[in-house]
Every structure is written in structure tokens, then in C-alpha cells.
Amino acid sequence: MKNMTHFVAMLVLFAAGRAVAQQPAPVKIEGGLVQGTSDDGVTVYKGIPFAAPPVGELRWRAPQPPAPWEGVLKADTFSANPMQEMRERFGPWTSEYQPQGVVSEDCLYLNVWTAAQSAKEKRPVVMYIPGGAFTGGSGNVPVYNGRNLAKKGLVVVTINYRVGVMGFLAHPELTKESQHNSSGNYGLLDQVAALAWIGKNIAAFGGNPECVTIMGQSAGAMSVHFLTASPLARGLFIRAIAQSGSYARIGPGESLASAEKTGMRFAKARGAASLAELRAMPAADVIAPAKEEFHFLPVIDGWFLPESVDEIVAAGKQNDVATLTGWVADEGSFSDDYGMVSGEEFQKRLRQQAGGEAGRILQLYPASTQAKAAESQKVLARDMSMVSMSVWAGKRGKTGKTHVYTYVFTHPQPGATRERYQTFHSSELPYIFENLTQSPRPWTAEDEKIAGTMSAYWTNFITAGDPNGRGLPHWPAFGNTPDQTMALGDTMGPRPVAGRERLETLKRLWEDTVH
């Protein structure tokens, strides 16, 4: 018995020693030492500050450097989410697509996943920018978990940035106090600050600061376009991925002067007679719903964006980087009237919005019966997205020298909502991150195969600027086949953007819209 007790004790000590050996050593970065947690060959660092808390006098100011710390920062817990309305479920977006935890104005933190064993490895880096309509979102959403992409050789960074009124308020007093005569776009400035942090610190995690890709979906995709156009982000990244966000016209559509007027109306609605009073209000009161609905979005502020993205690209002043971009097949399926508008209403809307092309569109997308109208609504919406992206890529190609790769994702996720939401907005994310286990759905071997292929395409592009690789169906660049795009889903391979007549008709419609 005594010998057995000694043996068990030795086993416990041995196991404890192994646990200590697996604890990653602290990493030295600009602010101090930081220590993550390791599992299955990947180390994750959660909640690293990349800017000072934007509170008090720093509310509605460009992000400032974080204060250094003493000792070792334990990066084992995600930070609070940016100030926003939290939801457990919205439409097709179940909990794995939603931020987790609490909200706080103190939110400028990022997370890093790496499988590098030394700082000398110089692995490709991807900075993921969350979506959320610029009113919500967070870097701690479960489907953004970077573990499996890190296993494929990437260093993955997810970030927070200010959203809603905290991220995009413009106001004359804010403009006046700015040395750049600018206000608004604080959330986009946060993204620049995160990129700058990566440039200074990512080598410590085995990443290559000269091989950084920005990647975002929805509002994150729009952010990718804004960063690509902004002179403030020049040289901070070499590739871009924009998922569900490449339109014939990117914008933004609002000027600083217009946004300032909205800011003044907002301050008045909050009972604040000055910027100082607005800054002194509790953050929860600032973001609380108001009787008057306000929208706070990126603007042409004269600093981050001297002009609209479209004007910058037309003049060839953008950061000319290889770009991968696309849409899912049923972007609008979260809407209650997706495919449900009556044939009469469908025709009425087309005549209002399509002008002289309405008759031809109705020939191509018939609405003579409710069944035909329902199907035509969905097909038209899909074609409009694809043709809009094609027009965007064509305009970009006039001044850009780098490749563009476009796609449409067509595979509906399995589960009870498959028929209702089909291939819904954001549904490609678990496949790209190869994170099917983050979602409690009845995944199949086919889903796992699709995830493996898509994550391989994304990894290849982030690594070399080209999604193609051994064993993968060939993905042609846009300029070589401008009327085709890449189908990703049950079928993998090039396909027409739309039928020839539909393509030409919708191109005319988009071109009339953007001129």
C-alpha cells in the first residue's frame, strides 16, 4: 500500500510537471509581457489591449496607445464587447454568430491564435474585422475562433472596434477639436490602430508583419473597402478579403457636414447642451434607444476618407492589393418578405426602381403567378448581388493592377431552418474558419468536405494572394473571365455571373444607378 501511494503521488507530480511544461512562456510585446493558453498545438491570447480605453475625454477621439503594464498580462479571457444591444438570437443568426459576455466602453482589445513555436517563423497573418451593420459585433463571436486556421499555418487576429454612436458620431465640436478638422469614423480609426499594433507586435507571435491580410464580412467587408481606400492604412496590409460587401457603388454616401447635423440633433435629443455634457453621460445612456431613430455610419470625413471609396478607386489612389470577394446565395433571406412579396407588388416595386428597364426585367424574371413571382424575387436578388459585384470589379480593374477573385457561396446549412433561411447572410463563416463544431447543427461529411476546401482556398489566398492550390478546383481571376465567378458549395468551379441576357440587362441597371 505504501509503495502504491508513493507511485500515485509520483504520477500526480509527473502530470503536474507536464501541465507546467505545456504552459506557454510569456511573450514580450510593446506594452509588456503577455501570456496565453495552449491546447492541441495552438496558443490563443485573448483580450490584448491595442489602444487605451476610449472613455472620459477619450470618448469620440482617435484611439490612443495603450498604457504599458508591469508583470505578466494573463491573456486568457475575452474582453468586453463594444457598447451595443446584445441579442441571443436574431433571424437565422443563432448564438454562435452573436457576441458573448458583457458590453463596455472599454473595448479596444484583440485576440491572437498561433501555432508558431518561435518568433522566427514569419507566418502569414489575417486580421478579421467583425460584421454587425456598424451597430454591433465583436471579436469574440464563436464562429470566428481562429484555432483551425492557425493549424493551417496562419496567425489569426480578431478585433473589437467601436460601433454605433460610440464609433461614428460626428459633431461640429468634435470636428473643431480635431487637428485634422474631422469627426466620425472612430470605429474605422480603431481598425487602423489594430493594424498598426499588428505591424509592431505580431512577429512576437510568429507572424510576418509584412504579410498581413484584412478580412471582414458584412460591415467588416465594407470596412475592408474603406481601409483599402484610406491613406491612413497605406502599407499596413497587402491583401484583402471582403465577404458580402462588394457593391457597384461602395460609398459612403454621407458627407461630414450632413453627419454633423445628425450629431447635433442627437445631442439635443439626449439633452446635452455641449460635447462636454455628452461625454459626461454614462455610456448606457448614450446608446439607449431614443424616440427619434438615429443612424451612425462611416462618412467622408476628409481625413480617414478624403473622398468616397468610388472616387478614390476611380483615381487610382487606393491601396492596390489582391482582393478576394463574394456573396452568399440568399443574402436577404433574413427579411420577412424574402420571396413572399405578391406578384403585383413585385411588379410595382420594379417599375418604381428600375425605370426603363422594368419591362425587360419582368420578362426575364416573370411574376405572372405567385409561384413565379416568389422564385423570381429570389433569383433577381441573387443576380443583382452578383452583377453588382461584377460591375465593382470591372471599375476597380481600370486602375488596379492586382488580381480580384470573386465567388458565390451556394450551400445551405443543415438543420431546422434550412428551408426558411437557405444560404443566409454569414452562413459561409463556419466553413471558412473550418469551425463547424462551434455550431450545434447536424453537420454531414459533405459539410466537412466543403469546410476543408473553403478554408484551404482562404488560407492559400492569405498566404500567397492566390486561392488556388494542389487538389483544389481551379479558381480563375476576374480579369481573365469577367463574366464568370467561382461557385463554392455542393459544386466547386467557375460558373456564369448570370445568364447572358440577365447579365447585360442588370449591368445597364447598375451602371445607370452609379452614374
Brief characterization of the structure:
Helix content is 36%, strand content 15%. The protein has helices at 2-22, 147-151, 164-168, 172-177, 186-201, 219-229, 256-269, 275-280, 283-287, 309-314, 343-354, 358-364, 370-397, 418-421, 429-432, 445-464, 500-514, and strands at 27-29, 32-35, 37-39, 42-49, 72-74, 109-114, 123-129, 155-159, 207-217, 239-243, 322-328, 404-409, 484-488, 493-496.
What's the CATH class label?
Alpha Beta
Low-confidence residue ranges: 1-21
User: What gyration radius follows from the Cα positions, in whole Å?
Assistant: 24 Å
Strand order of the largest sheet: 3-4-6-8-7-9-10-11-12-13-14
Keywords:
globular; disordered N terminus; 14 strands; 11-stranded mixed beta sheet; 515 residues; Rossmann fold; alpha/beta; 17 helices; 3-stranded mixed beta sheet
